[in-house]
Amino acid sequence: MRHFAEFVVISHLNMQKPKNILLIKRAQKHSPNSVDRDTAILLAVADCLTVKGHSVSIANEESLPVEHHADIILSMGRNHSTLQWLAQIEESGIPVLNSAKAMLGISRRKLLLTAQELGVGVPPFATFSGNNLSNCKSSNCKSVWAVQFHPEVFHSVQGSLLLKNFVVDICGSRQEWSAASFVDSTVAELKQQLGNDRVILGLSGGVDSSVAAVLLNKAIGNRLTCIFVDHGMLRKNEFQQVMQDYQGLGLNVIGVDASEQFFSDLAGISDPEQKRKIIGRDFVEVFNAEAKKIKDAKWLGQGTIYPDRIESLNITGKVIKSHHNVGGLPKEMNLQLCEPLKWLFKDEVRRVGRQLGMPEHLITRHPFPGPGLAVRILGDITREKVHILQEADDIYIRGLREYVDTDGETLYNKVWQAGAILLSTVRSVGVMGDERTYEHPVALRAVTSTDAMTADWAHLPYDFLAKVSNEIINKVRGVNRVCYDISSKPPATIEWE
Question: Which residues pair with 479 in a beta bridge?
Fold first, then answer.
């Protein structure tokens, strides 16, 4: 994200509902990773500009399209030919979002523009040496605004207000999206898309797949069959608890214990990406075997959300991390894909869940990785390691639920995501009673976020951390040290693997 350039926003249209979004990615002059991050941020900005549900295509600035049907263009391009091409686009009246450094030619100058100053009254195409509008210098362009920071990132001061000023005051958006309107429109779309077909949905126990299941159930009723695969790396007692929750929602759910297969195939595997791939492959195999038992199924429903797709982008051959529910379906499944939540962020999914009347404990459930505790164990996977981590994680999560902060809110509800990580490739020396120990450390992780694209480590109370640390070390055999992860995203990801 640090490589992401400033934004230049070109628009003065009464842009109500853009349909086609064209992303122009810059020529690869930096590391492949930086290009991936830039493109991912462009997708996040597109989402912030209320373009959910519309078509997004990507083009390289080295091969710009001769013809296009874009309603708005987001560009990272910096070549002279790209700028000329964008200038022609601007003359045609199509809104363009482009890198400010190349456009303005002021790569060593600061552009500081506060949210209040980005409004209809701002002089067009203004450059700022400070946040004083009297220092602005306008060009002949009639509809250009520039900023040099990340307004789409949650922690940008008044970034949301800046985007709102642009989208509502300048572009004329009506801001008609709501959880209620999403449910109504999506249910109608699902009925039309699926007709009388049967749908199979893979449940994970998380809020995303649960909301997707309830949404599909509302649209097609008993033509939905859900499958919940236990790969043996869920949280302590999670399989039984989740099955009870789903039955309470009136869902038709088949539970499958496939832990033996997963543990066997993961034996000796330490590479995190390989672990994810094996779990994804085995999940498809187990799911496919169960799906074949269901007659006439034509669709596979998934709880894929927007951050899953962004992090799984593979534009230059590298990804941030792959998600087991992103990347299409194996041909042998012979099913079409249905992803009703693919344009939503996690907070929006929760709003939809509440609109559907789901229990609050399911809606506020923390995100949990599809591969489960396999990506929270550094090194290879064994049942013994999973058991150790389940016990430590259970103490930690239970403590978060029980600890009430000074504002009356539980710590669990104040953090975005939390979990324990077993450093099974590391051993540390300790003392238990009168004996020397040589066992594994456990790291505790808790972050605050709104969309998982960025996250800060949660500042948990010291007394809470001390209590949880003591309880884990005293009760979980195989652990003699507890650490707390104080890394933010970026540069660290929320999960360790």
Answer: 440
Q: Report the C-alpha gap between 200 and 182 in whole angstroms.
A: 22
CB 369 within 8 A of CB 495: yes
- Nearest CA to 5 out of 76, 86, 60 is that of 76
The domain defined by 7-170 folds into: Rossmann fold (3.40.50)
Q: What CATH number belongs to 185-363?
A: 3.40.50.620
Q: How are beta strands 428-432 and 435-448 bridged, if at all?
A: antiparallel
CA separation for the pair 27, 221 (Å, rounded): 49
Phi, psi of 345 (to 5 degrees): -90, 170
Q: Which residues contact 275 (CB under 8 A, 6 or more apart)?
A: 266, 269, 371, 374, 375, 381, 497
Q: Is 359 helix (H, G, I), strand (E, B) or coil?
A: coil
* Every domain range in the chain assigned CATH 3.30.300.10: 377-484
Please state whether beta strands 198-203 and 456-457 pair in parallel, antiparallel, or not at all (unpaired).
unpaired
Residue 56's pLDDT is 65
Mean pLDDT of 462-468: 97
Distance CA 241, CA 230 (A): 12
Average pLDDT, the chain: 78
Global pTM value: 0.66
The percent of the chain in helix, strand and coil, each rounded to the nearest 5, is 40, 20, 40
The pLDDT value given to residue 121 = 36
User: What is the three-state SS of 137-171?
Assistant: ECCCCCCEEEECCCCCCCCCCCHHHHHHHHHHHHC
Angle, to 10 degrees, between the axis of helix 346-355 and the axis of helix 179-194?
80
| Beta-carbon contacts of residue 93 (< 8 Å; ≥ 6 apart) | 13
Query: Per CATH, which fold does 377-484 belong to?
Result: GMP Synthetase; Chain A, domain 3 (3.30.300)
Taking CA atoms, 246 is separated from 211, 213, 333, 340, in Å, by 11, 9, 25, 19
- C-alpha 237 chain-centroid distance: 26
Residue 267 burial class via C-beta count within 10 angstroms: exposed 0-12, middle 13-18, buried 19 and up: exposed
Enclosing H/E stretch for 356? none
- Domain boundaries for CATH 3.40.50.620 within the chain: 185-363
Determine how many CB atoms are found less than 10 A away from the CB of residue 428: 14
Of 28-32, 104-108, 229-233, 316-320, the poorest mean pLDDT is in 104-108
Q: Do residues 242 and 249 make contact, with C-beta atoms less than 8 angstroms apart?
A: no
**What is residue 496's three-state secondary structure?**
coil
For 122-263, where are the E strands, in sequence order? 144-147, 198-203, 224-230, 253-257
- For residue 349, the one-letter residue type is V
Instruction: For residue 392, give the nearest of 472, 314, 450 by alpha carbon.
Output: 472
